[in-house]
Write a structure and sequence with these properties.
Keywords: Disulfide bond, EGF-like domain, Glycoprotein, Membrane, Repeat, Signal, Transmembrane, Transmembrane helix. It is built from two helices and five strands. It is an alpha+beta fold and 127 residues long.
Length: 127
C-alpha cells in the first residue's frame, strides 16, 4: 500500500496505490470511486426535516399555551361575575311578597291578616 502523490479522493477519503491503481478509502457515510457520493440513511425521512419537526413542536407548544391562557381568563371572568352578583344580592336582598293588610277592620276580608293585626296590637298594648 502506497499513498498517492495526488489525492483524488474527496470528502475526507484516503487515496492508496494498489497494483498501480488509485483506490479511495471513504469515511462513513460516503461511497463511490472518489468518495463523491453521500450515502442516504434509511432512518431519515425526506418529508420531515429537523427544522420542520422543531417547527411542528413549537406550534403545538404555542397552541397549548394559548388554550391554557384563554381558559384561565375565562375562569377569572366567571369568578368576577359571581362575586359581583353575590355582592349585589347582599346589598339588595330580594323582597318576599307579603299580603296587603286591608285598611278596614273587617275580619271576613282576610282572617289571617286580621289575626296578625290583632297580635301586633296586643303586643303594642303590653309595651
Amino acid at each position: 500500500l502506497y499513498e498517492c502523490e495526488e489525492n483524488v479522493c474527496v470528502n475526507g477519503g484516503t487515496c492508496s496505490l494498489i497494483a498501480g491503481d488509485t483506490v479511495c478509502s471513504c469515511l462513513d457515510g460516503y461511497t463511490g470511486i472518489n468518495c463523491e457520493e453521500l450515502i442516504s440513511s434509511p432512518t431519515s425521512s425526506p418529508s420531515l426535516t429537523p427544522s420542520s419537526a422543531s417547527l411542528s413542536v413549537l406550534l403545538v407548544i404555542v397552541f397549548v399555551a394559548l388554550t391554557v391562557i384563554i381558559g384561565v381568563i375565562v375562569l377569572i371572568l366567571v369568578a368576577i361575575f359571581c362575586v359581583q352578583r353575590m355582592k349585589r344580592d347582599l346589598k339588595n336582598p330580594p323582597q318576599s311578597p307579603t299580603k296587603p293588610i286591608p285598611l278596614d277592620d273587617d275580619p271576613e276580608a282576610d282572617p289571617e291578616a286580621y289575626e296578625l293585626d290583632q297580635r301586633s296590637q296586643e303586643q303594642k298594648d303590653k309595651d
